[in-house]
Design goal:
The protein is of the alpha/beta class. It is built from five helices and nine strands, in the order βαβαβαβαβαββββ.
Length: about 210
Amino acid sequence: MPASSPYPVPQSTSNLTSSQHFVTAPPAIVICGVADATDRFAPALRASFAVTVASTPAEATAFLARTPPALVVTRLAADDPAGLALCVKAKQCSTPVTVLVTTTDPATVPDALIAGCDGVLLEPFAPNLLYARIGRLMRERAANSKLYARDSSTHPAHVPAYAARGTNRFWPGEVCTSCGVSGITSFEFSSRRRAWYACTRCRSVWLARRLEE
């Protein structure tokens, strides 16, 4: 992670006065099912976050029940619903947890969007892309926390589960190429000119020209 992270990290207090000893704890992240997370990703992320690598979805779910983190990174597979179930559990916390899903199969994404995931990262991916995606989601979470404090109607509990959020983008005027209904979600870029899209109604996924906001 870049040294200029916007998140406070533990600092030595040896040179501080008694009134300066308080240091804000770094946001907590749980990573589950992502290959090489312990050796490849966690060390760099720990420069800015309190990282827990869960060996199983059950372990990650137990962590959610004890101390909900700020963000969960979980892997989705078409033949294993555990990752999707973890996403659902994360969104059922009293303060919904931000969820980033990774997958090799884009066909799993519509169900993840319906479950409320905040971002999608298609595998394989470079480490810096994961770090950048997490940083963006966490900055948005911090900004939204301030918004929720001012207006409770904007809290995720009042937002439909299928609504686009995070790094996903909802396009109400664009039509699904399969069912012909307006309202699709872009969730990942495949190049500078093309992006992945999903329809949460018919659960289709396709590549098309990248839309600009």
